Structure formats: structure tokens, C-alpha cells
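quick one, 336 residues, struct below
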Amino acid sequence: MNNQINAIASIASIASIASRRSACAAMLLTAVLPITAFAQATNYPNKPIRLVVPYAPGGAVDIVARLLSDKLASELGVSVFIDNRPGGDGSIGGQAVASAKPDGLTLLITVSSAHTLTPLLNKSAPDPVRAFEPIATVGKLGYIVIVRSDFPAKTFQEYVAYAKSNSSKSSIGSSTSGIYLTSERLKRATGIGDVVIVSYKGPVLSALLGGEIDMTLDPYNSVAFIKDGKVRPLAVLSDQRNSEFPDVPTMEELGYKDIRYSSWMGVLAPAGTPPAVVDRLYTAFAKAMNSPDVLKRFREQHYTVMVNKPAEFSALITKDTADWKKLLATVPGMAK
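---
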């Protein structure tokens, strides 16, 4: 009997020691995690950063990426290089980042339609919520309806009349899924449903100037051409007229109150990027966006500065995804 009691006591003692060791290991792990996070923030970054642009050079996203890369490099102490990955309505560049190592050295700068609408149209695109860690929004883009200066229509109403009479040879250019969907909605609202929408991987402005297309929705990349008389603005897709083009009406003023479009621009990292690195990047981008030359360039490009924190950006992504789903329901056949 004594032997059995001694055996039981020995087992209990061993179990107690194992339990204490497990508790100590857990305490040690809990203590180490903050230290590791701190070390990641302190040592980050120790290599060049790749900023992926899911569009060809020359467009709005590329312009902003190159504008911010120098500021970011100065703030973080490493070089920041631009990697243009056009195609798939932004999904190719998005996938390149979603599949990258979550160490904060590969980032995506994109727009709302590419990030939240494209996955609803293309099931192979990465999930806008689960595949990424939001860093910060940096700006908001407005859009304007433009045609070439030698185009027969001088007003939006004249454009609609021309498109109805020449639907078989008239076309609209699109470079993003958001522009495509808005163009589809505009076609249906104005009764020009037979007009063809031509998709481009890069900026559409050169195609418009070259006569390949008749009209496009432009994120104010055309301002210089408007001033030079090479491009004619017909309407703005924001709630208010643009102060630089006060004679150009809004779509609501023209009788199309539901046809409006704007787009945020933001920076994301792969899912699993450590919170300390996310915070470090947010601080760097927020500081870059407050620099005088960046603010000046944004004004010149008619971009609006909009810096949201990671949690705010995450909520915006969720909201936009739900909003796009509602809009897709008004254009049968687009969702896949």
C-alpha cells in the first residue's frame, strides 16, 4: 500500500512540476511577444521596400506612388521602388502583394474599385478583407466626363444625342472596374446602352486623344489638356462643381442624380503583417501626406488628401464592398 501511495505522490509531483514549467513557458512567451513586436518596429525596415502599383505608369495611382516613394524613403531610411503590375482590373498587382511575405517590405497602393469591386467581378482576385492589412488611405479622386475638343458634342446632352445616333461606332474608354461599372450605369441611365466600353490596362487619355475612343471618365489627369483646349469637359461626377471648371455641371444638375463616382486611394500590406510594422508604416505615410510639396501636387492634380488610420481604413473597405454589391445589383450580368 505504501508503495502505491509513494508512486501516486511521485506522479503528482511530476505533474506539478510539468504544470509549473508549462505556466512558466506561457509566461515567458507572453513576455517575449511584446519584445518581439518592439524589435520588429525598431529594426523595421532593414531592406528596400517594394511599392506595387496595379496599373501602368502615368496614371493617377502611379503619380501618387512616385510622389510618396521619396518621402517614404526619407522617413524610413531605406529605398522605396515602384513595381508596376497592370492587368486584371488591379487583381494582378493585388495578388502579388497578397502572396508576399508579411514583413512590411512589399506594399500595395491601389484605389477602391480595384480593391473592393474587382473581387466581386473576378473570383480569382484576392479577398479585400482577409488577404490584406490596411495601412492608410492617402487621398480621394474625383472624376470628370471628357471628350476630345474636335468631338461633335459640346455639352453632355449633345454627347447623349450623338451616342444614340451613332451607337454602332461610338465608344467609352475605361481603365478600372469602377469606371467600367459607372460607365455601364451611365449608359443605362441615358439610353445609350449599345455604346461599347473599351477596357485598357493603363491610362485612357492617350487613347482618347488618339481617336480610339469618344469619351471617358477621367480622374483629372486631363487638366492640362483641358486648359490647352485639346480636351473638353462635359460633366463632373461629384456632388459639387469643380472650382477650376465652374461652368461644367454635375450629373445631378443634368438630371442624373444617381450617377456619381469618386475613389479613395490607399496603401495595404499582406495579411499577417505585425501590428508594430503597420503602425510604423501608417506614421510614415501620414507624415509624407503632410509635406508641403505633396499637398501642392495634390491640389494641382485635383486630388483630395484623405488620411485614415488602419482601423478606419478597414471599416471603409467593408463598407465599400457592401456598396459595390448593391450597385452591381442594378447592372444585371456584371457580377460573376
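The first helix runs from residue 2 to 43.
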